């Protein structure tokens, strides 16, 4: 059971004005809090391109598409030292992701989605054969909206990482969302571990730029579960519906 971990997400929204996936009036659902998935999906006939810029000149691109309202699928790839000098350390394999909503949200029951995501985050560590932040792997998530200081929702789930990772978010004004995520990371304290048992506390802020664009600034490993800890990531997201 060391591969299994639980995460929790709470989302708060207050205002209605946005044209991307940040803020209370977002026209697109937020699919991740920081690293961990939510039950949010792209709308039917939509495509998303995400770019994560991380430490050591790293870049990861993720392309996700939706042919139906209940199904998203995509591919991702990247590496470190892409920006700067030295040899590029490419990821060993492309990442793949699939998410299916099996139950829609009702007044008294949450939306339920299950999926798989093989893409870890940040550097790929060759000698340990793992990403710095392990991939979600197989996951099951639930999402429920309710009224609390405006529009709010809560998301929770469990997952099983093939690499042998909970959270809060609150909108700030019309098109900003503050996020926090805690990952118990019970699977990162034994074989090929780089964690020290504190778990991973991540936080970020998302800003809707309109017309499908969102920019996100994330501060990861605030508790310094690994060395050196406190990495900073910039993420760009573009979503287009057809």
From TrEMBL:
Keyword set, alphabetical order: Signal
Keyword Signal appears in the UniProt entry: yes
Superkingdom of origin: Bacteria
Signal peptide annotation: 1-18
Protein name: Outer membrane protein beta-barrel family protein
Species this chain originates from: Kryptobacter tengchongensis
Upper lineage: Bacteria, Pseudomonadati, Candidatus Kryptoniota, Candidatus Kryptobacter
